[in-house]
Design a protein that fits this description.
Layout: H1 19-32, E1 36-41, E2 50-55, E3 61-66, H2 72-77, E4 84-86, H3 95-108, E5 113-118
Parallel strand pairs: 2-5
Antiparallel strand pairs: 1-5, 2-3, 3-4
């Protein structure tokens, strides 16, 4: 999602949108585009990491998580609040592999958010790195 900011401000002065507001906006965006999204896990309201599981409903899924910090400065300059990247090597994985990946992330960070999107086109509705 893109947000306007004052063009003279620096990225170090940039305030990130709260996780709960970002997730609510994402779920609403998915619905307005004709897909289905559900909040599977509520994390820390202010700054919890957000993971998105995209299910194509044909046995292919993807798990997207926060992109590496090295890409954050570039995204802020473009006016993008959060950038996501696949958490697996292949473009699509089996649903069981996606669930294993999410479980590992939960074991590492119990304050994370999980949004699950069902979309036959495989749209994630978030900005992807690279």
């Amino acid at each position: 999602m893109r947000f306007r900011r004052d063009p003279v401000s620096r990225s170090s002065e940039y305030l990130r949108l709260r996780a709960d507001i970002f997730v609510a906006a994402l779920i609403r965006r998915v619905a307005t585009e004709g897909a289905f999204a559900v909040l599977r896990r509520r994390g820390a309201a202010e700054a919890g990491a957000i993971f998105v599981k995209v299910d194509r409903l044909d046995g292919r899924t993807a798990v997207l998580g926060p992109a590496p910090q090295t890409q954050l400065a570039e995204s802020v300059e473009r006016g993008v609040d959060r950038v996501f990247a696949r958490t697996h090597r292949d473009e699509w994985v089996e649903p069981q592999e996606a669930e294993r990946r999410l479980k590992r992330e939960l074991d590492f960070d119990p304050d994370l958010w999980i949004v699950e999107i069902e979309d036959r086109e495989g749209r994630a509705f978030v900005d992807l790195a690279g």
